[in-house]
Specification:
The structure holds 2 protein chains of 2 kinds. Chain A is of the alpha+beta class. Chain A contains 21 helices and 29 strands. Classes of the chains: A alpha+beta, B alpha/beta. Chain A: It is a peripheral membrane protein.
Chain lengths: ~775, ~1100
Amino acid sequence: MATYLEFIQQNEERDGVRFSWNVWPSSRLEATRMVVPLACLLTPLKERLDLPPVQYEPVLCSRPTCKAVLNPLCQVDYRAKLWACNFCFQRNQFPPAYAGISEVNQPAELMPQFSTIEYIVQRGPQTPLIFLYVVDTCLEEEDLQALKESLQMSLSLLPADALVGLITFGRMIQVHELSCEGISKSYVFRGTKDLTAKQIQDMLGLSRPAVQMQQGRPLQTPEQPVISSRFLQPVHKIDMNLTDLLGELQRDPWPVTQGKRPLRSTGVALSIAVGLLEGTFPNTGARIMLFTGGPPTQGPGMVVGDELKTPIRSWHDIEKDNARFMKKATKHYETLANRTAANGHCIDIYACALDQTGLLEMKCCANLTGGHMVMGDSFNTSLFKQTFQRVFNKGFNGEFRMAFGAHLDVKTSRELKIAGAIGPCISLNAKGPCVSENELGIGGTSQWKICSLDPSTTLAIYFEVVNQHNAPIPQGGRGAVQFVTQYQHSTTQKRIRVTTIARNWADAQSQLQHIEAAFDQEAAAVLMARLGVYRAESEEGPDVLRWLDRQLIRLCQKFGQYNKDDPNSFRLSESFSLYPQFMFHLRRSPFLQVFNNSPDESSYYRHHFARQDLTQSLIMIQPILYAYSFHGPPEPVLLDSSSILPDRILLMDTFFQIVIYLGETIAQWQKAGYQDMPEYENFKHLLQAPLDDAQEILQTRFPMPRYIHTEHGGSQARFLLSKVNPSQTHNNLYAWGQESGAPILTDDVSLQVFMDHLKKLAVSSAA
Amino acid sequence: MSVNQQAHTGPPYGQPQPGYQGYPQPAYGGQSLPGVPPSQYGAYNGPMPGYQQPGPPQGPLRAPPTSGAPPPASGASHPSGHLAYSQYEHGDVQNGIPASAAPMQRPPASQPFLPGSAPTPVSQTSTFQQYGSPPASVQQLSNHMAGMTIGSAAASAPPPAGLGYGPPTSVPPVSGSFSATGSGLYTPYSASQGPPPTSVSQGLPLAQPPFPGQTISTQRLPTQVPGFAPPPPSTGVGPSSYPPTTGAPRPPTMPGPPLPGQTVAGPPTSQPNHVSSPPPPSAMSGLHPGPPMSGLHGPPPPTHPPQPGYQMQQNGSFGQVRGPQPNYGGAYPGTPNYGSPPGPPPKRLDPDSIPSPIQVIEDDRSNRGSEPFVTGVRGQVPPLVTTNFLVKDQGNASPRYIRCTSYNIPCTSDMAKQSQVPLAAVIKPLAALPPEETLPYLVDHGESGPVRCNRCKAYMCPFMQFIEGGRRFQCCFCSCVTEVPPHYFQHLDHTGKRVDFYDRPELSLGSYEFLATVDYCKNNKFPSPPAFIFMIDVSYNAVKSGLVRLICEELKSLLDYLPREGNMEESAIRVGFVTYNKVLHFYNVKSSLAQPQMMVVSDVADMFVPLLDGFLVNVNESRTVITSLLDQIPEMFADTRETETVFAPVIQAGLEALKAAECAGKLFIFHTSLPIAEAPGKLKNRDDKKLVNTDKEKTLFQPQTSFYNNLAKDCVAQGCCVDLFLFPNQYLDVATLGVVTYQTGGSIYKYAYFQLETDQDRFLNDLRRDVQKEVGFDAVMRVRTSTGIRATDFFGAFYMSNTTDVEMAGLDCDKTITVEFKHDDKLSEDSGALLQCALLYTSCAGQRRLRIHNLSLNCCTQLADLYRNCETDTLINYLAKYAYRGVLSSPVKTVRDALINQCAQILACYRKNCASPSSAGQLILPECMKLLPVYLNCVLKSDVLQPGPEVTTDDRAYIRQLVTSMDVAETNVFFYPRLLPLTKADVDSDSLPAAIRNSEERLSKGDIYLLENGLNIFVWVGVSVQQGLIQNLFGVSSFSQISSALSTLPVLENPFSKKVRSIVDMLQGQRSRYMKLMIVKQEDKLEMLFRHFLVEDKSLSGGASYVDFLCHMHKEIRQLLS
């Protein structure tokens, strides 16, 4: 544990946890003065190659309000076969199975290296995973064809015993019955009428009394209680059927007159999908996968009318309160999302269209249920195809990288309370002694439900130090937090992963430098960004920015070293040095800036920001820029306009986009065809290098980033130009000389100006 | 003839009362006369009067005897019989005397008539009757309702007669008065009148064969009339035959129709008149010469000695002569006057003496069936619907398209009101034609569309008058002058006709079609070809009974026979399939699919169509998919346990499908049960037999909910016609389920307790026909008329959103619309009255067309002309529809009373204004309406208006809706079923055996009969039928082994079986629905059902027998007259 950096990294690798502060201020007052809250980024299912799960039940603290899991921090009396809960100090008897326990014969959960441990438990019947495709048929022929192929392909990727269902929609919604031979059957619903779950189940013949009356089917055998079998079938049984069925899918046949959008009943289709699963497989892992090629245009959840002359709402409309369908639609989808989440299912949204598709309204479906949200231009793009394929990626051990129906239970030692969480989860409203009254994010609970998660899903969890100033913690005492995640593994096993961590307390007054040194500025930046983005969902953009600025200034005031009113004297320690820069880029990021983004794009970006792990989040905040040139090996360069040079190839990764940008000279060379000449093979290699690197990123990223290959002066170059720090603009071009970099046509302030202002304000005694 | 007889009888009664008798008779004669060709008739008249006079005396005499008071009453009943005799006699007399005598005599009584000439006979007859009957008759009268109506007395008002002469046409009136007496005269009339036939007929009977026949013939040809002499011979034969055949009774009938008929009734008597003179030479003729009395005698002689009459008749001689009559007489009642006195008194009216539908039909058939009916002349009364005849369109629509209650319309509304004769046209715009007749030609007037009157928008037709050298035309309806469009201009010839008159159907024909332009299309868009959607109930009942499998199997082949436009290779109609129980299943049968796809819509509360493409397909393109579907449907639902069904959503689904496809079309719904599943249009079982005969009975005919009315409106707007095939095992509320069908111009077929073995043929035949028959969609019909009358009321299966346009989502070749006209101004005799029925529709190939039917009618200022040109069958059609609609809003009793009252008024008006004055006790019927009472009685006894205990509420509602769309031929046979003695059939010829009257006493237990009414066929087997026949027909050895469960006759290789089966096949071919065949063994349970159709008998449910009803009518009439 040489440095905090290593410590942090180790902790992250072992436990999937990154705290903003790794030494905790010991009192409430001090904690609030730290500006950045005590919080952590938790990746509950972080992949651990070295963590074989144990095949038994965890041992729980017997206090009903605690129920913490036995962990390495607990004090154990091997003789008395007792252990003391480190959260509530309850003394517990070991269960009979632990009779042979001793110092040398410890169960795994007591070993320090198993601060994170996973149990496999046998609970209830195992139901196979469920995949319900909800497919929009109002697509262009090519798109539909591509989508059909993707779907057919996906059948081969599903677990063989998974249940699969198909709902298609356009003007109508069809729920396809998959169990039949000969005639293919589907139940059809109109897209303009919202139906309650009960109605849907009645109409699908799922309600119990209707069972006997189902026409055309032999009697339900008693041992086969799964009445939904007509709509959800094991993929191995019906993949031929389903492949044919998908093959025969036609575009929505209803005529679309000129000047109209096709009538698309996404709202009802989702409602039916939710209702179907709700009635048949509550509380088992299920994915509703919505593929849509345009905005919902009718029925509940419609986002825009079918008149093409009325464009879909923009941020401008929203600010002017001019988006007539937005509130109603949002409400519709929220209701659905909450129902889905309550049932432990998740909704993925794959939206591919050139225009907006209503993600703004539908975002909660994915956000609250942990579903994926993918936005592309067309289903006939590799972006979609590969992204979709990647949903079914398998991990190193051949298991699907997805898990369902997770319950995250957070326990804290007494000095801490839980303020809330931000991430793809919903509250389970579990009140308890460790729940704070102050909420940050989704608060008021110590338990959340994450309906779907993968190894990278990351939640931000915020704490509050409640220890009073006058009752400091005994020196050397440690605060502990335990994260208990119960979930359904992709193999349908029930598993419980328990992570217990502890951090030292420190008196902020006397040991500020310890606390300071243990500051994790990356985590802090992401945690603050999540808070900011969370606020941005409900507050006006400028207010959020002001709030962020104020926090930054306060942080600088608190931890900067400076002389009053002397900006030039301002210094930040190493552990804080990058933080202002993160904040600068965050301010400019699409998560907080809506300018130039459609509401859908904003929702899309925010969605991903709220669930990715720290590394990815940082890339989102501050894209990475690599430069390739004849001057040396590829190197990361400043995300600055000065990095844009004619003889460089730049590779920028913003998480959502991979941009390869050929400098002016390079582009000219390429046009001249030097790369094809044997004598310039090195040029060819230079051109190829960023492509290879980009491929590498593309391979691992989910969702697939938009891949942009452009050059100096190309229209797509805007993706790069909008991200770099505008150190050179048309305003200051001459001041900086012309020999380097590319001017950016913007009025945005550059990082330098930003820092200048920050310093000025931080040192100002008036602040 | 019975009619005629009645007439005669009538007179008798009359005689008693009036005492004058003589007068009345003359009146008759007069009436008839009018019709008759003036001059010649005149002569006859002459004679007639003479007779009459004689009559009077007798009458009086007799009358007194019976009883001052009684006379009337009694007289009425009996009279007929007597009359008949008398009539004959008269006839004879007349004949004998011919003109000279008659004139002389009459003068006093009714000179006017004389002029009327021939017609007068009727009246005369009456007189005679009086004579004969006097005493006896009276008694009879007393016995019966005095009112015996006998008087078919055609005799129209005397005065008219005179007039009539003027206008040859008028003659008809005569009929009324059988006054058989006049008959002689009548015949003449008839001859002249042609139309009047009725009266004549009567006369015939008496004359027996010869006479009657003669009369008949004469009637037909007005011209001949004059020449009576000549006609008689020929005719005479006919008549003679009748009498013989029928026996005494018949005679009258025979002549009836043709001749003035009435007279005939008097059977012998009337006939005698004319007849006698010519043919009968023997007796009749003799009679004629002789004075009335002699005449009477005459008849007898001729008549075949059938004794009965004799007995009856007081007139000794008559009676004897009439032997035959007597029979009648007994029956007659009517005759009473004459013959009755003797026999009748104690007895009831002799059924044989009252007008017989069979006779009328037979007469018309033999008189008018041989030559084509040429429509060139205005106001011609077409042959009866029961007659086979060809039509040559020469400017007026064929009677197959339009029939009117009267072909001579009163000029003023006062007259019309006075007569109470409804002016109505029964229109069957898309009627199927026999192969010998050509379909209406299709005319294309180019882009500007059909040439029409600027003001009233009437379409170019033969009656438009071109003026100013052809540059303009004057509308024949509203007189507005319209420019002839340049492209339509043509020069006129010297007669003012366009030169291209014969090249243009719209100028020379009564019926033709225009090609409609886009202006005539919905949304200004040419329509797409229509679609047929088959919607099959697959609930438990339907599956279990095998119905679903049956339908699917049948559809596989049936789809090859969808209606197509004449020369097209394949039908343009697209088809779609839906099955349903509590939810609906749509099928995608797009040709590109390997397998059909089923789409289930369970949201029945808010119906919609789940697919567009692939639902409605071309049969040939999607054949394999369709076949696969039809193969699988029965399998898919084989294990269903769903018993509940929905209904309204099914229609909605079809409607939505058509809407989505933007076309018109037809839904074929196969449904089994009351829709009780939770859905719009859900119904409850509200059947309650206790409501029958209460003020609430009407609710049984009304729909339970207005939901279906609204649905129907939507369907009509889209051109969605609904045909309903019902297979109920219990009450399923036809009244409600049928609303949409009814208002969209669809048909309902009902197969109660459907069983595969027995009902499948019937159902499949109905289905085949229903699918294949010619049909138009999205139709709007408008009837334009000459200024002066206006179409005010419409009956049939359609929807009206305003007061003039009849809208039908679908209109097939069997659907009929009855239109009633009322005066709103005066008409003129010169210009007559014109009707133009324009039907805008979409053909089965999706072509928008206008079918135009034009009909010109005469107008009259004399009521007699009206009565002489009436058509009773059409009238009954109207009255039945009127009454059947009435039950929706009024208690059935009220409806029945109103019907009786209206008919009584019609007849009373005739009696008062057209018949020659006679005693009030005489029942005098217009020749053309002599069957009105019997038919009316049938209507009153029908299941709707007087249900028996075994008739279900659904049956009544079903029949009510059925009748509303029936044409005249259908109502005719429906109300008065056809009863054929199979054992009398000639196995070597193609002809049908002669029908007999619907009365049990006509059945012989040694024979086998067939009865059909358009819905059912009964084969009635008498207990003592020869074993050989039973063996031949049923393949079993004895009566007791015949199974009454048979639904078809076994196919046996022997002439009798072949003949009977060919008869059955022929009958089935004539009807729009395949009739259910039932075997009824005499004295078997089923016989009760069968008897229900013997409409001349008293019915179990309380319906009056013909005879009783006739008496009742007479009473009503007398009340009105007094």
